[in-house]
Amino acid sequence: MLSSPIEYLKGVGPLRGDLLKKELQIFTFDDLLHHFPHRHIDKTKVSKINMINYQTDFIQVTGILQQFEIIGEKRAKRLVAYLRDDTGALELTWFQGISWVQKNLVPGQKYLVFGRTGFFNGRPQMVHPEIEPFVLAKADGKDYLEPVYPATEKLKARGLNGRQLAKLTFQLFSQIKPTDIPENIPEDIFKKLKLMNRYEAFSNLHFPVSQEAYQLALRRLKFEEFFIAQIRLNLVRLQRHHSSRGVVFEKVGELFNDFYNHHLPFELTGAQKRVIREIRTDTGRGHQMNRLLQGDVGSGKTIVALLSMLLAADNGYQSCMMAPTEILAQQHYNGLKELLKNMPVEIALLTGSIKGKERKRILSGLLDDTIHFVVGTHAVIEDVVQFKNLGLVIVDEQHRFGVAQRARLWEKATVPPHVLVMTATPIPRTLAMTAYGDLDYSVMDELPPGRQPITTVHRNEMARASVMEFVRTEINKGRQAYFIYPLIEESEKLSYEDLKQGYEQVKSFFPEPAYRISMVHGRQSAEEKETNMQRFVQHDTHIMVSTTVIEVGVNVPNATVMVIESAEKFGLSQLHQLRGRVGRGSEKSFCILLTGSKVSKDAKERINTMCATNDGFKIAEKDLELRGPGDIEGTRQSGELNFKVASIVNDKDLLELAKTTAEQCCEEDPTLDMAKNLLLKNYLRSQKGKNAWSRIS
Ligand code: ADP
Ligand code: MG
Questions:
Q1: At what angle do helices 526-537 and 326-339 cross, to 10 degrees?
Q2: Which residue puts its alpha carbon closest to atom 18 of ligand 1?
Q3: Which of 263, 484, 603, 697 is deepest in the core (most CB within 10 A)?
Q4: Residue minimizing CA distance to atom 15 of ligand 1
Q5: More confident residue, 92 or 96
Q6: Ligand 1 pocket: which of 259, 263, 266, 581 to mutate (most atoms <8 Å of CB)?
Q7: Which residues pair with residue 517 across a beta bridge?
Q8: Rounded to the nearest whole angstrom, what is the distance from the C-alpha of residue 269 to the centroid of ligand 1?
Q9: Distance 300 CA to ligand 1 centre (A)
Q10: Phi and psi at residue 566, in whole multiples of 5°?
């Protein structure tokens, strides 16, 4: 029934059917059922026209329509009508669909009008209001909530406005039966959570019998959206756990223990210990590990990686660690080599710039297992390297590591290696739950003890001279500084010129030869970037002037100041990533956000957030709030995020509830064969093509 083409609905027909398809992608009865109203009109809530003031946003009024007239020519042509109640007059204006509006307005009739108010020549005005003849609220005394649906201007002009759509939906409900919208939540859950049943919920979301019923319907459908998504993610994850094959790291051996007891330079944090336990469990079960490790900048992910690699080595397996850039690979290599200096394991660095004999030596060492660990850039390792027995792959600073890339690594071993993806871009828990719910997922939410928090301040450009003085005192103490300029995406040229100007400006404050400056930007070749970066790393230069290219991972503990120019142009998580480049040593560090005096409200909020906290997870929450889930950097564009009624920002509690409920359900019955889960299984099957169910059954 619900799959019937929309033109078969009484009152639609082929013409309107085409319009609905083109304008709103409504092809079937079911699509119309899922076209939810964006608001309901409560006809009992009507304001008086003289209550409209400059603060008024949307308002609903009634009044008698006075005369109307058409003014202006061509593009300025508009229809203006006047609505009058016993307190004043309101101007109603249409720029489009004039002839249609004109035909339908009857002077002298009473109308109900809803819209956003504005002022024109000092008089209150409403442009393109929703308007319909006023009918008294239902006599039975109940709140009468009438749905209004999103519609396009084109639809409105063809007589299918938000309220006409309501008529069609009403028609739909008179043609379908409750059994057309069967329950899909298992009975025990349904009862326990006291949910409204599915048919009732749809019915009340469109045509609520009361405010309370509307709220219950909303809750039910939000829960359903989250629950179904979580069930799918859990099934995919469990499926992988059950059917994937993985190498077994069965023992914790000598290498791990020796390092842990004698060479570990510090006590691990609780979070680090927990994650290592999780990795141990994962890699010991005979199934492939596919784990995402999220930890704020500086939370100490490298040592977790190293301990995992030692675990692999104890069981006779090689490991590789991949970084997005040469500099990062180099830094990891240096750091790991230092940590491993008294250990009987061989580690090698493999990047594009390692050539000739050294390259040959490494490649053959990996093939005959005389080299146990290799650190390198993604491209290099993915393309050319053959291993004797690769058991563990660690991907640093990248959570977009895709399925295709993983598959390429699998080809390097008969049984796929375990994969640990590490990322320092915190994403909020709710987002992680929906975007990565099919992966295993660890969080390191604890920083090693004794870190000095970075002091972040906001300064106006006018205070530049004193900011420069401050930077000078730091440099004179022997420290280094970053100056960061925004990358203007639309114009590489503009960014470059900004940066050049900035460079000159910095240079005028810090003249040679007393001060030396490096510059890194997108127009340089990889080699140039590398050289300039290396000079800064080696403290040849005091100052690094750069666009955002240094964002990820670079470690220069001696750098204690970061000045971010035009800070209003940066996103929150980007600012946080950048700031993470300072505060890496034992000295107190500073981040100075420079802006002009005109800053938008959102930018102001981003800057305030940065000044208020160093906690990446808090910042990520705020980012999600400000931008919404679609735009969060680094998350996959996952269909699982396209919720129609639920919101991962506003409905966190329901999401948590749906997650735990779905987990219990899948753990108890991973194939959904129990009688009580039959409705759910049928529902998932009926949605096939839209989800992972086909892969499961
Ligand atoms: P990230 O998670 O950003 O990759 P790193 O692994 O680079 O962090 O660690 C940042 C710094 O913290 C390094 O200098 C590392 O040696 C140090 N560190 C890591 N874990 C601890 C710990 N448990 N106690 C003290 N210092 C630690
Ligand atoms: Mg790191």
A1: 40
A2: 300
A3: 484
A4: 300
A5: 92
A6: 266
A7: 543
A8: 10
A9: 3
A10: 45, 50
Q: Which of 269, 272, 296, 303 for mutating ligand 1's site (highest number of atoms within 8 Å of CB)?
A: 303
Nearest-CA residue for ligand 1 atom 17 is 300
Of all ligands present, the nearest one to the C-alpha of 276 is 1
In short, whether 268's Cβ falls inside 6 Å of ligand 1 is yes
Ligand 1 in reach of 444 Cβ (< 6 A)? no
Residue/partner pairs of 262-269 with CB below 8 Å, 24 or more apart: 262/342, 263/339, 263/340, 263/342, 263/343, 264/303, 265/339, 266/448, 268/300, 268/303, 269/299, 269/300, 269/444, 269/446, 269/447, 269/448, 269/449
Q: Is pLDDT above 80 for 652?
A: yes
Q: The tokens 């959904």 sit on which residue?
A: 672
Cα 245 to ligand 2 centre (Å): 29
- Determine which helix (DSSP H) or strand (DSSP E) holds 590, and give its type and residue range: strand 590-595
Ligand 1 midpoint to CA 328 (Å): 15
> pLDDT digits over 234-254, tens only?
888 888 778 788 899 999 999
440-449 pLDDT, tens digit per residue, is: 888 898 888 8
Question: E strands along 72-160, which residues?
Answer: 78-84, 89-94, 110-120, 123-127, 130-133, 145-148
229: nearest Cα among 634, 671, 654: 654
Of ligand 1's listed atoms, the one at least distance from the Cα of 580 is 3
HEC sequence for 415-447 = CCCEEEEEECCCCCHHHHHHHCCCCEEEEECCC
Residue 505 has a pLDDT of: 93
For 408, half-sphere exposure in the C-beta direction (CA atoms, 13 angstrom radius) is 12
* Residue 302, ligand 1, Cβ within 6 A: yes
- pLDDT bin (cut points 50, 70, 90) of residue 612 is very high
**What pLDDT, on a 0 to 100 scale, did the predictor assign at position 634?**
46
Residue nearest (by alpha carbon) to ligand 1 atom 14 = 584
Pocket of ligand 1 contains residue 424 by CB under 6 Å: yes
Q: Is the dihedral of CA 62, 63, 65, 70 positive or negative?
A: negative
Identify the three-state secondary structure at position 198.
helix
Q: In 3D, which of 585, 500, 473 has the Cα closest to residue 483?
A: 500
Whether ligand 1 lies within 6 angstroms of the CB of 297 is answered as yes
- The beta-carbon contacts of 49-57 under 8 Å, at least 24 apart in sequence, are 49/83, 49/84, 49/85, 49/87, 49/88, 49/89, 49/90, 49/124, 50/87, 50/88, 51/87, 52/90, 52/117, 52/124, 54/119, 56/117, 57/116, 57/117
The pLDDT tens digits for 173-224 are: 999 999 999 999 999 999 999 999 999 999 999 998 888 999 999 999 999 9
Give the rounded distance of the alpha carbon of 276 from its chain centre: 27
Q: What percent of the chain has pLDDT over 90?
A: 52
Binding site membership of 273 for ligand 1 (Cβ less than 6 Å): no
